[in-house]
Amino acid sequence: MKDDPHLLRIARLEYEYVQRDKLQEDLDTLEREKELTSKSIQEKQEKFDSLLPLLKKVLDATRPVQDFFQIDISAKKEQAAIAQYLPPELYVLLVQSNGYQEARGILKLICFTHYLMTEF
Q: Do 87 and 120 lie in a common domain?
């Protein structure tokens, strides 16, 4: 019976049929997961797309505050866009120097606020 080529072929065909069924189930599962992931990505993209106009409105609304504190956000955006082309070592130096400048500005603001509070 083990040597009967006909029975061996039937067993092989049955095995292949079972394997194809399993592969088809796996394919269907993966396609459903792909569709769900695609929908999720599309929903998140729509949220991000709707966020940009709101952020622009916030920036426009905060323009007087930026002007008062002499903060130029558009210049920082331009600098960040250009900085991405720097070699990693120079980028680190740029980020550290920007952090130092911001910290100095905050420190000056704190000292000024303290000065105003002690005077009055």
A: yes
Domain count, the chain: 2
More confident residue, 14 or 84: 14
Q: Which domain holds residue 1?
A: 1-61
| Same domain, yes or no: 35 and 83 | no
Same structural domain for residues 77 and 119? yes
Calpha distance 23→3 (Å, rounded): 29
- Is the pTM above the cut of 0.70? no
Please report how many Cα atoms fall inside a 13 Å half-sphere around the Cα of residue 25, on the Cβ side.
Answer: 5
Q: What is the dihedral of CA 30, 48, 78, 97, to 10 degrees?
A: -80
3-state secondary structure string, 32-86? HHHHHHHHHHHHHHHHHHHHHHHHHHHHHHCHHHHHHCCCCHHHHHHHHHHHCCC
